[in-house]
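In the current project phase, we have settled on a layout for protein records. A sample record is reproduced below.
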Amino acid sequence: MKLREIAYSRSGDKGDISNICVFAYEDIHWETIRSEVTVDRVRDTFGDLVKGDIVRYELPGTKGLNFVMTQALAGGVSRSLRADPHGKSYQSLILDMEISSSV
């Protein structure tokens, strides 16, 4: 199933850094998200869009994960020629990730 079936996301940016948070809709899905949405899986999902490091932070109190991705916006808003220089569409891309059903 797609991650979007059990989670929602938010994204932001600063310069050439994209920040994406993924939150479980329900507490029961937290462990599935925690175990399956890894840095390696995120790197595979984003491919060449992210040239730098990806760091994952767990936010257990909110049942969420925060991914900070460097060199992810082709230079940032004022330098990028991308149609989405803020990386707002990244939150949809991460939710397209296939995960095992936890229901």
Remarks:
- The first strand starts at residue 7 and ends at 14.
- The chain has one domain: 3-95.
- Confidence is low (pLDDT under 50) at residues 79-87.
- Residues 3-95 form a domain with the Alpha-Beta Plaits fold (CATH 3.30.70).
